[in-house]
Specification:
Blueprint (H helix, E strand, L loop, with lengths): L12 E2 L1 H7 L2 E7 L4 H6 L6 E10 L5 E14 L6 E15 L2 H5 L6 E4 L5 E2 H12 L10 H7 L13 H10 L4
Parallel strand pairs: 5-6
Antiparallel strand pairs: 1-7, 2-3, 3-4, 4-5
Bound molecules: zinc ion.
The site of zinc ion has 8 residues, from α5.
Length: 177
């Protein structure tokens, strides 16, 4: 199948201020395993995070990055304590600032991204945003019993004990000769 550009791995590093000046748009994926704090906060390091970042200059002449990050992350169901996969979507609206002081002066619709001059770690920024969007608690949508049987999270544990009636059936059907 034809691969869309969004399957490319997002570059880890970049100069956000230069990106904003040049109107750079980045689209790609970050393997979940590359974000240690997300791995720590969830139950699985499998999968990828879809990321779209548009660096631009806002109408207030601020250097900003607008975009989103989304992923299916595995959390623990608070009802049955089994893994449950939940879609996590984070919308990103950050203004790139030098320090806390500048952060305080931002228009309300922007959160600050405090970055020193030059190259910044884009994964770190995305990780921070994603962590803020993690639900505090997660539950299976379907009744938990069903999810246990059908979810792809873990191999299903089938009870191996023999049904006494089955044993009886076997005895009955065994050849008498
Ligand atoms: Zn559950």
């Amino acid at each position: 199948m034809f691969k869309t550009p969004s399957n490319k791995v997002l570059p880890r590093q970049g100069d956000p201020r230069k990106f904003a000046q040049h109107g750079v748009c980045l689209e790609g994926v970050i393997p979940v395993a590359e974000l240690p704090r997300v791995v720590e906060a969830t139950e699985s390091s499998d999968g990828e995070i879809q990321v779209k970042l548009e660096f631009t200059i806002s109408e207030e002449r601020k250097k900003v990055v607008i975009g989103n990050a989304s992923a299916d992350l595995t959390l623990v169901c608070q009802r049955c304590l089994e893994p449950v996969t939940v879609p996590v979507e984070s919308s990103i609206s950050l203004a790139i600032v030098w320090d806390e002081e500048a952060a305080k002066a931002l228009p309300e619709r922007f959160d600050p991204w405090i970055a020193s001059e030059g190259i910044a770690d884009l994964y770190d920024m995305v990780e921070e945003e994603l962590l803020l969007s993690l639900p505090a608690v997660a539950y299976h949508e379907e009744p938990c019993l069903d999810s246990k049987l059908y979810s792809s999270g873990k191999p299903v544990e089938v009870k191996k004990e023999k049904n006494p009636f089955q044993v009886l059936e076997q005895l009955k059907s065994s050849p008498k000769s």
